[in-house]
Specification:
By secondary structure, this protein is mainly alpha-helical. It is globular. It starts with a helix and ends with a helix.
């Protein structure tokens, strides 16, 4: 596994916490630490969240009995890799739906994003 892939997977695991069917604010510090420790820019993180993690995890927030304790890495990582192995045209389908879903179903992201930017600058 390359360093970039390993670091990306750590970000996937951290960001997946935003899609749990519970109050995720207690996970902010851990998510923030993982994202700040990663080599990815905030713009890269936005893309990773929207185009890699959300397609796999966002449906959890629409489930009547969604996951609330955390996504197990043995499920999460292969699921994201499988999603990313699809043709690009197929992955682009639903991108605008996911963007709207993120804004509506993960309202914590803008605040957390601002915290990450402030920490990286400061």
């Amino acid at each position: 596994m390359t360093a970039d892939r390993s670091e990306r997977e750590r970000v996937w695991i951290a960001l997946s916490e935003l899609f749990l069917d519970t109050d995720v604010s207690s996970s902010f510090d851990q998510i923030q630490r993982e994202v700040i420790a990663s080599p990815f820019s905030i713009e890269d993180i936005d893309i990773i969240l929207r185009d890699e993690v959300a397609p796999v995890c966002l449906p959890n927030l629409y489930s009547v009995a969604g996951e609330w304790t955390g996504f197990h890495p043995d499920w999460l990582l292969p699921s994201i890799h499988k999603y990313l192995s699809q043709p690009a045209w197929r992955r682009r389908l639903g991108r605008s739906f996911r963007a709207r879903g993120l804004r509506r179903m993960v309202p914590e992201w803008p605040d957390l994003r601002s915290r990450i930017i402030a920490e990286r600058i400061g």
